[in-house]
Amino acid sequence: MLNTLFAVPASAQAQAVIFNGALLPPAAVAQLQAAGMPLPAGRYWYDAVSGWWGQQGGPAVGQLPPGLPLGGPLRADASGGGTGTFINGRELHPVEVQQLTMLFNAPVPRLRFWMNAQGIGGPEGGPATFSLTAAAQARGQGPGRGHAATGPRHSLFGTTGGDGNDGYYYDPSTGANVMFGN
């Protein structure tokens, strides 16, 4: 099916490195490999804004510098989609939504977001409302790590907090409140 989505001749596909539907020249592949990125033949997607990349139809597997001239425009269905959550125009893979749910300890809304290479982002056309780095740092110090109390944490998914034994989540888009704990 992927062969029909992009106009790359079948004879070139067996040995080709294809980013966002465009064949990468051998010199560009050599540069990436020289920079320490093992890149076997295959189909990949690349988000030039965040630097995230992965195999066509799959989740992000790493980050490259943003703004590299790798292939054509990023397609909305580059990761397979089906989640209704978009970052920089790409519909996230279910694995990425699951990872974000765990990171933010809250459901991921089915919305469109922008995100830069530092992991800072927000709703498309709006201000920054989240930081993946800050969320990861907070997650490493929050409940489950010695049951420390946490003050309110505001993220793109809502507000969470707790005292180490009990917690809450507030979703501003729906007005829903959830309390949990012992």
Could you describe the 3D structure shown?
The protein is α+β, with helices and mostly antiparallel strands. The protein has a domain at 1-73. It is 21% helix and 29% strand. The chain contains 5 helices and 14 strands. It has helices spanning 2-5, 10-13, 26-34, 94-104, 132-141, and strands spanning 17-19, 22-23, 42-46, 52-55, 62-63, 86-87, 90-91, 112-115, 120-123, 130-131, 150-155, 158-162, 166-171, 176-181. A hairpin with a 2-residue loop joins strand 1 and strand 2. The longest helix has 11 residues, at 94-104. It is elongated and about 55 Å long.
List segments where confidence is low: pLDDT < 50 over at least 5 consecutive residues.
1-13, 141-149
Question: What distance separates the N and C termini?
Answer: 49 Å
Strand order of the largest sheet: 2-1-3-4-5
SSE pattern, N- to C-terminal: HHEEHEEEEEHEEEHEEEE
% residues in beta strands: 25-35%
Mean pLDDT equals 79
**In percent, how helical is the residue content?**
10-25%
Q: Specify the overall morphology.
A: elongated
Q: Strand pairing plus helix content: what structural class?
A: alpha+beta
Q: Taking Cα atoms only, what radius of gyration do you get, to the nearest Å?
A: 19 Å
Tally of alpha and pi helices: 5
Largest sheet: 5 strands, mixed
The overall strand count is: 14
SSE map:
Layout: H1 2-5, H2 10-13, E1 17-19, E2 22-23, H3 26-34, E3 42-46, E4 52-55, E5 62-63, E6 86-87, E7 90-91, H4 94-104, E8 112-115, E9 120-123, E10 130-131, H5 132-141, E11 150-155, E12 158-162, E13 166-171, E14 176-181
